[in-house]
User: What shape does this take?
Amino acid sequence: MTARLDALNLAGDLPGVLLDAKRLAASAPGVHGRRRAGQGEDFWQYRDHRAEDGARLVDWRRSARGDRFFVREREREAAQTAWFWIDPEPGFDWSSDPARPTKLHRARTMALALAILLSRGGERVGALGRQPRRGARAVDRLAVDLLQPVQDVEAPSNSCVIFLSDFYAPAAIWRERLLACARAGATGALTMIADPAEEDFPFQGRTLFEAPGRGGDVLIGRAEAARTAYAERLAQQRREIRTLGAELGFPALLHRTDHNAAPALSMLIAFISERYG
Assistant: This one.
């Protein structure tokens, strides 16, 4: 019940997220899908009958309209679906500036923008743990599904999974998560989303650091004295995540919420297009 109420509260933000995603998708290069003839259920196109096709493949209803024989081709079933996983931790739904989007808002925007481009290319898209979809309504359904994120769900075999997180969870947790994907033959991309305050650590003097939804607040008398140690620990965490992703087929990119999302989306598109190649 609590999860449903949280989702209903977040639903009021959906129109804004979808609008941001459409604007972002419009600024990015397109994605070429894998639409081609093959074994599938969906009609793709008619083509002229060839001698090697034999009479069995002739579409007699279409051919009866003229003087030529036609073959009805179906679209090859996509072997992959783009799955999205967005960090469910309370700290991910945070911004250091009310005028700036939260990390969660930016993650949803980037996920939906990529889903728009993939859907145009004929791909299926879905939230991990939910039903994937394709077609005109796929992105709208994905937007709703992303309102109720999941902690850990088994990745489908040979799939493409896009993780969007701040990746502050211990590297050991991410190793188990990505190893489970690798065992299923899944690859994808890691999108590290950070708030500028987390990157620059601009704090000075007596500062209370609060952990959203967790408790365990920390009061530091001279915050500036912790800046160097903080930067070193953050850099180490990022190196571990990048190395882990590279080993298991999940290249990583870093995006700050005070930067334009278009370059990061373009890089993400490159990662995914390479996976679909």
User: Anything to note?
Assistant: The chain has nine helices and nine strands. The longest strand covers residues 187-194.
